[in-house]
């Protein structure tokens, strides 16, 4: 577990971006306001996206396909039934790209077993606690060596 300031969240996003490979799924867990979108923005900026990175809460899926490694950013908060996911085409995003998923639990327990699961929890001092579950495909890539606070 790491306790992160907002600036350190950008460092974690950059480290995550450097570790990504085509076909990767990163599942971002945490309550509203935990920092999931902040971390996704940091990843996208580290991959070279210079424009706005809106939360995909309304659109559900926001593609960033003009990056060297295309990213699909999905927010499943409004998904009520895992059956709705087929219409979103999220699996197609993995063909040569990466999927960042907020609220992945809305996809059901069996969704994306190969995903790196990152859990963000707000701390009373404004920092975020970051914990993770690392699948076999991410061994040796996560956690990255991060500077100690």
From TrEMBL:
<dbReference type="InterPro" id="IPR027417">
    <property type="entry name" value="P-loop_NTPase"/>
</dbReference>
<comment type="similarity">
    <text>Belongs to the TsaE family.</text>
</comment>
<keyword id="KW-0547">Nucleotide-binding</keyword>
<dbReference type="InterPro" id="IPR003442">
    <property type="entry name" value="T6A_TsaE"/>
</dbReference>
<keyword id="KW-0067">ATP-binding</keyword>
<keyword id="KW-0819">tRNA processing</keyword>
<keyword id="KW-0460">Magnesium</keyword>
<keyword id="KW-0963">Cytoplasm</keyword>
<dbReference type="Pfam" id="PF02367">
    <property type="entry name" value="TsaE"/>
</dbReference>
<keyword id="KW-0479">Metal-binding</keyword>
<protein>
    <recommendedName>
        <fullName>tRNA threonylcarbamoyladenosine biosynthesis protein TsaE</fullName>
    </recommendedName>
</protein>
């Amino acid at each position: 577990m790491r306790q992160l300031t907002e600036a350190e969240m950008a460092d974690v996003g950059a480290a995550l971006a450097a570790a990504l490979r085509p076909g990767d799924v990163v599942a971002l867990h945490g309550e509203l306001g935990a920092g999931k979108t902040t971390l996704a923005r940091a990843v996208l900026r580290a991959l070279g996206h210079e424009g706005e990175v809106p939360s995909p809460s309304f659109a559900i899926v926001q593609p960033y396909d003009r990056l060297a490694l295309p990213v699909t950013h999905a927010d499943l908060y409004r998904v009520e039934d895992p059956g709705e996911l087929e219409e979103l085409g999220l699996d197609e995003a993995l063909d040569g790209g990466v999927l960042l998923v907020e609220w992945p639990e809305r996809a059901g327990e069996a969704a994306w077993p190969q995903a790196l699961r990152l859990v963000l929890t707000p701390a009373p001092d404004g920092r975020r606690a970051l914990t993770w579950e690392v699948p076999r495909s991410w061994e040796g890539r996560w956690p990255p060596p991060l500077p100690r606070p």
